[in-house]
Design goal:
The complex is a heterodimer of chains A (about 350) and B (about 350).
Chain A: H1 17-41, H2 49-56, H3 64-98, H4 111-125, H5 132-137, H6 140-165, H7 171-194, H8 198-209, H9 217-236, H10 238-244, H11 248-253, H12 258-280, H13 286-298, H14 303-325, H15 336-354
Chain B: E1 8-17, E2 25-35, E3 40-44, H1 51-58, E4 66-71, E5 74-75, H2 81-87, E6 88-91, H3 103-108, H4 123-135, H5 151-164, E7 169-173, H6 181-198, E8 201-205, H7 209-215, E9 218-222, E10 228-231, H8 233-238, H9 241-245, E11 252-254, E12 259-261, E13 269-273, H10 276-288, E14 292-294, E15 301-308, E16 311-318, E17 321-325, H11 328-343
Parallel strand pairs in B: 3-8, 3-9, 6-7, 7-8, 13-14, 13-15
Antiparallel strand pairs in B: 1-2, 1-4, 4-5, 9-10, 11-12, 15-16, 16-17
Helix pairs in contact in B: 4-5
Chain lengths: ~350, ~350
């Protein structure tokens, strides 16, 4: 073979993009910290910011009620918001890459409905013995049970969608199929509800509104470890995700074992979306909106950068939604699902408007 | 070249589909093929003959029905996906839908089979990426996003990615499909040069008969019935293989020009004397008009093309008289009028 010579080209000046990216990153980090503080500080009971800061920093306060509210209610809720923001965003990013579809996301393709089905099976099938309340009271074993059921439900729907997507090339048709599968799961749940006791249905309906507040301290450990597992799998799959950006045929020609990569991504997404849905209810729009926000903020499609960026952007958005849902200054709390839909839907519309050819871009 | 070891060798290869476990649908085969280093091979054939199926099978993206495919003396069945990816890279017809991906990142994805689990690029990787970018002349838009590229640019970027994969064999499925003529020519010239300079073998399928005849070191002609004729393009022209493969009513392959005539010359025989571009284009125009070009001076009509004071003059001789024309348009109008008179 002839000797190949590789003329040295100057390193492309991608470097110039870095300072901007670092600036955005710094700004976003600061925003997350501020939003976190605000989320803890604001609520139906007014606590002076100074006291809030003292309690968070572990210096205690003279008012025992304030300490309780912050440590047992607001901090777990804010941490849940962070976990949910990370998990749903990364789950959404992975789905958008896997399906090569800019409108894919846990809530769109029926993944959360699958998780709901899993939850419904646990909550409604156990007869009068279990209700959401008792499941939550069951503590660790109960919460693992509901997580496993919900993850399995999510994985089931995802496998189904992957099987169908192998036959369908068109993104828009894929989306319609996803919505239909979501509808099927929802009707299954409705049938189940029809034969259930009223208290159980009420519990289930409350759960579908979504809530970050239902996660107590002990559940938080369960949720956090599930998130950690899901994110770890996701981060270990960054190279696979990058290769999948070119489509499965190219990925295969570069030496990727597509089946294994798919399973890994499905497992990670199901764990992330499933466990969040189990505890907080089906939360929509975060998973689809955040990956696009992160991409337009950081101008990259490299997953090694995008995954952490999605975590940060998702956290910021989720904290923001949570602050809104408490309606600062009032006594009532809106369901989180309503707020994420209000904030997320315009983003989705913006995605469609700003890209005139949806099929050819994400 | 025949002394060298082939990069790719197939033996009794049959390609096709298995709709279910009992049925087999053979598209092409049995084929015995060889690809040697430094060769540019053009795979031609009518639509539906199975060009893509053959390429996909050679690349291991689709299972073969029977036979053997060896790459550098190893059966592709025995190669792990990453090993295979170090021997063979591809440029597919699939469009890259990731608009946010910049050119440099896309080309560096070519290093996939060589990097670790996190995909970190070493200095050697970067060197090869830079070489691939230089070799394909894509430096100018290395920072652009994929959705900001024209079809021609994006095809060169996909080639750069395949080069970065640094394989002895590159397989391209219809790389010229969406390109305009200058871009098609540029790409084929680039491929020809690359094959010569790097000693890589390039196998591509195309419908560009003309370019394939000019640039291909070898041509594989896939017949509708699944047979394949191979050889140096000029040999295939002379032995009539092209006529056989593209045999359809309504047009015929012209051996002397290497092009297809869409007009069947059944009309009045006409003899054209003169040479150069003017004669060539006159013949084309006359064929379109329905004349059949004759090689004998005893034809019914004779047209003499002469140069006169830097201008071209067409002289039509008919029954001892002659008429001069200054453009092909005038010539055609004149001929039509003559015909009318004769009919009367």
């Amino acid at each position: 073979m002839a000797v190949k010579t590789y003329p040295v080209l100057e390193e492309p000046e991608v470097v110039s993009a870095y300072p901007v990216r670092k600036l955005v990153l710094g700004g976003l980090l600061l925003l997350v910290v501020i939003l976190f503080m605000l989320d803890v500080a604001l609520g139906s009971i007014a606590i002076p910011p100074k006291e809030v800061a003292r309690i968070i920093l572990g210096q205690g306060s003279d008012n025992a009620a304030w300490v309780y509210i912050i440590q047992k209610i607001r901090l777990p809720k804010a941490i849940t918001a962070v976990l949910v923001g990370c998990g749903l965003s990364v789950g959404g990013l992975q789905m958008q890459t896997l399906f090569r579809n800019p409108l894919a996301g846990p809530s769109v393709l029926g993944i959360t409905s699958g998780a709901s089905l899993g939850v419904a099976v646990v909550m409604l099938s156990a007869g009068s013995i279990t209700s959401l309340h008792t499941v939550r009271e069951l503590g660790l074993t109960g919460s693992w049970l509901i997580i496993v059921a919900s993850t399995l439900g999510a994985a089931l729907v995802m496998l189904l969608i992957v099987a169908i997507s192998a036959r369908l090339r068109d993104n828009v048709i894929m989306l319609i199929v996803g919505v239909m599968i979501g509808n099927i799961t929802i009707s299954l749940i409705s049938i189940w509800q029809y034969f259930s006791a009223p208290e159980q249905i009420k519990d289930y309906l409350m759960w579908t509104f979504g809530s970050l507040g239902g996660v107590t301290e002990s559940h938080l450990y369960v949720l956090a470890s599930a998130m950690l597992l899901g994110l770890a799998i996701s981060f270990s799959a960054t190279k696979l995700l990058d290769a999948l950006l070119l489509g499965e045929n190219y990925a295969r020609s570069m030496g990727l074992t597509v089946g294994r990569a798919r399973l890994l991504i499905i497992a990670s997404t199901s764990i992330l979306a499933g466990s969040i849905t189990a505890f907080c209810g089906p939360i929509g729009f975060i998973g689809i909106a955040v990956p696009h926000l992160a991409q337009s903020l950081f101008h990259t499609s490299n997953h090694r950068t995008l995954i952490p960026c999605c975590c940060l952007t998702g956290t910021a958005l989720m904290l923001f939604c949570d602050i809104l849902s408490q309606m600062p200054g009032s006594q009532s709390v809106l369901p989180i699902n309503v707020i994420t839909a209000l904030v997320g839907s315009p983003v989705v519309i913006w995605i469609i408007m700003s890209r005139n050819n949806l099929r050819a871009s994400f | 070249m025949s002394g060298a070891l082939p990069i790719l060798h197939t033996q009794n290869l049959r390609v096709g589909y298995r709709p279910n476990t009992r049925q087999e649908k053979t598209v092409a085969g049995p084929l015995t093929l060889n690809i040697f280093p430094g060769q540019l091979i053009c795979l031609l054939g009518p639509n539906g003959a199975g060009k893509s199926t053959l390429l996909r099978t050679l690349a291991g993206l689709q299972p073969m029905l029977s036979g053997r495919v060896k790459i550098e003396n190893t059966s592709i069945a025995a190669l792990k996906p990453t090993q295979m990816a170090r021997k063979l890279s591809m440029v597919l017809t699939d469009r890259v839908q990731t608009g946010n991906l910049d050119v440099y990142s896309l080309v560096s994805l070519g290093r996939y089979p060589y990097t670790g689990w996190l995909g970190t690029l070493s200095a050697a990787d970067k060197k090869i990426i830079n070489w691939a970018i230089t070799a394909t002349q894509t430096q100018a838009f290395v920072h652009r996003k994929m959705d900001q590229l024209s079809d021609g640019e994006s095809q060169k970027v996909m080639l750069a990615r395949a080069l970065a994969q640094d394989t002895p064999l590159i397989i391209m499925d219809e790389p010229t499909a969406h390109l305009d003529l200058p871009n098609r020519i540029e790409l084929m010239r680039l491929l020809h040069q690359l094959a010569r300079q790097t000693n890589k073998a390039i196998l591509l399928s195309t419908h560009e008969l003309d370019l394939a005849l000019q640039a291909g070191d070898q041509v594989w002609l896939l017949h509708q019935d699944g047979q394949l004729s191979q050889g140096v393009p000029e040999d295939l022209v002379l032995n009539g293989s092209f006529e056989k493969v593209f045999d359809k009513a309504g047009f015929n392959f012209d051996k002397t020009t290497g092009t297809f005539n869409i007009h069947q010359g059944q009309g009045t025989k006409i003899y054209v004397t003169g040479d150069g571009a003017a004669a060539f284009w006159s013949r084309r125009a006359l064929q379109r008009e329905g004349y059949s070009i004759s090689n004998e001076s005893q034809a019914e009509k004779t047209i003499t093309i002469r140069k006169q004071d830097k201008a071209v003059v067409w002289r039509v001789a008919l029954e001892g008289r002659h008429q001069d024309f200054n453009t092909i348009s005038e010539l055609l109008t004149g001929l039509r009028e003559q015909n009318k008179k004769i009919k009367k």
